[in-house]
TrEMBL record:
Gene3D superfamilies per UniProt: Dihydrodipicolinate Reductase, domain 2, NAD(P)-binding Rossmann-like Domain
Similarity comment text for this entry: Belongs to the Gfo/Idh/MocA family.
Keywords: Oxidoreductase
GO molecular function: nucleotide binding; oxidoreductase activity
InterPro entries with a match to the protein in the record: Gfo/Idh/MocA-like_OxRdtase_N (IPR000683), Gfo/Idh/MocA_domain (IPR050984), GFO_IDH_MocA-like_dom (IPR055170), NAD(P)-bd_dom_sf (IPR036291)
PANTHER family reported for this sequence: OXIDOREDUCTASES (PTHR22604), TRANS-1,2-DIHYDROBENZENE-1,2-DIOL DEHYDROGENASE (PTHR22604:SF105)
Oxidoreductase among keywords: yes
This protein's name: Gfo/Idh/MocA family oxidoreductase
Residue span(s) of domain Gfo/Idh/MocA-like oxidoreductase N-terminal: 2-118
Domain GFO/IDH/MocA-like oxidoreductase: 131-249
Organism: Candidatus Xianfuyuplasma coldseepsis
């Protein structure tokens, strides 16, 4: 049984705390917040044993084996490094790091400490995603002609200049918040490297990306076309569409999907709770098996994702203040 502590007591941590109850090989015992009051409230809400008013106190505590990092993007590296250096395995919320350089440093530290570090990209672990991979491997739909992946919401009041989503100091913007899922899906289903791509951005007044429209092609014989679109200022179709010579595969709400539609025939894969349970279970299994690289969300996969996101940001000239 792997004992978890959480760094951060926000909404994403609440989803984690709810879903871990459906996992047999892991349990949540502690939470840390910079506000002791928030930590105690979270502790009471989820009936945990320990609340800490500092992250240092949590990672120094012998009663936890692993840390779930649930803080804003720009803090992921700091809180992951702190945890690893105190001999804790780390499941870090997506994106693992703001850029590839930081991600490489984090993985190097995990290797030095002989600890498991994994990006919490929950989509990769969902039953529907597993089925999608099997379908693509086992069925001959002919050549893959196009990949179209969209993910967008109008986040309304959350788009204030002082909020997290549009704050460059907190690595805000549509790419790191939502587009990481588009990039992950593209790399999951692409059967060849990317040959080229272009990006059309819409920027917020704060300088971060509100909306990205990315078009490109894969380096294969049929030059498979792809479109990735992500937005925090408007609702999009929110699906992944794979068009083949002999069929179409649609994944509605692809980042949290419970359904795959193959040539108009739906196949359903309901979650046990709300979806985080599968990544938690896989991460805990890796620790119990003494694996330092999870086979589903490997270090190599994370590096491919963050490297492509770096390339997208380079195309639009988006550099966060703390990166300069």
């Amino acid at each position: 049984m792997i004992r978890f502590g959480i760094i951060g007591a926000g909404n994403i941590a609440r989803k984690f705390a709810s879903d871990i109850t459906a996992v047999d090989n892991a349990t949540l015992v502690a939470v840390a917040s910079r506000s002791m009051e928030k930590a105690e409230q979270f502790c009471n809400e989820f009936d945990l044993d320990y609340a800490f008013g500092s992250y240092q106190d949590l990672v120094s505590f012998d009663g936890v084996d692993a840390i779930y990092v649930a803080t804003p993007h720009n803090f992921h590296k700091e809180h992951t490094m702190l945890s690893l250096r105190h001999k804790k395995h780390v499941l870090c919320e997506k994106p693992l790091a703001v850029n590839a350089g930081d991600a490489a440093e984090m993985f190097a530290e995990a290797q030095r400490q002989n600890m498991l570090l994994m990006e919490a990209l929950w989509t990769r672990f969902l039953p529907a995603t597993t089925h999608l991979k099997n379908i693509l491997a086992q069925h001959d739909f002919g050549l893959l002609q196009s990949i179209d992946v969209s993910f967008g919401f109008d986040m309304g009041d959350r788009l204030s200049a002082t909020g997290r989503i549009l704050n460059p100091q907190l690595a805000g913007g549509s790419l790191l918040d939502l587009g990481v899922y588009n990039v992950s899906m593209l790399l999951l289903v692409a059967n060849a490297p990317i040959r080229s791509f272009e990006v059309k951005p819409v920027f917020a007044d704060t300088g971060v990306d509100l909306h990205l429209h990315i078009t490109g092609e894969l380096d294969n014989s049929q030059s498979t076309q792809f479109v990735l679109e992500c937005a925090v200022d408007q609702a999009l179709s929110n699906e992944a569409v794979l068009t083949f010579e002999h069929g179409t595969v649609i994944v509605p709400n692809f980042w949290s999907t419970t359904r795959i539609i193959i040539n108009d025939e739906p196949f359903d894969f309901p979650h046990r709770v709300s979806g985080f349970e599968y990544e938690i279970e896989s991460f805990a299994n890796s620790i119990l098996r003494q694996e330092l690289n999870n086979p589903i969300m490997s270090q190599e996969e994370t590096m491919k994702i963050v490297t492509l996101m770096d390339a997208i940001r380079e195309k639009i000239g988006l550099v966060y203040p703390f990166e300069q």
